[in-house]
Design brief:
By secondary structure, the protein is mainly α. It has a domain at about 1-70: Orthogonal Bundle (434 Repressor (Amino-terminal Domain)). About 75% of the residues lie in helices and about 0% in strands. It has helices at about 5-20, 25-30, 35-40, 50-55, 60-65, 70-85, 95-105, 110-149. The longest helix has about 40 residues, at about 110-149. The chain is flat.
Length: about 150
Amino acid sequence: MASVKQEIGERLRSFGAANFKSMSAFARALGMRPQNLGAYLSGKRIPGNKMEDKLRALGCDIIWLQHGATQGELQHRFDEMIQKIRTARDVTEKEREILAVLRGFEIEDVYEFEQCFSITKAVAIKMEKLAKRTTSIAAMKKDKHQTKK
């Protein structure tokens, strides 16, 4: 399964391929070297506010870049879920759980949902980094312990 960073990188690559002759041309349009763009395309880095501003100026839908769907698509999905829940038909247990969380946070529209999702995404990325560090530290301690024996 691809990480959030890799998914963003794939969408960034897709945007670049659809709008520029090459990734080098895409990098130039963003005011960076192709090697630096490569870090974003591979999912090693995610665009910050400055890069998002540049991408927006080039016509990139930032919500699509971050979430894989446009604002309208997210609103449509959100509205469908709320309607299903209100009419209580074909509601999955997961949707019931999501609605309970949304109600708890008093989230009533897709914009508020997107803000909550962005925070969740940022936390997920930090947790992914922490898990990698923890794994590598544990491996180093294990190696150090075995070397002492």
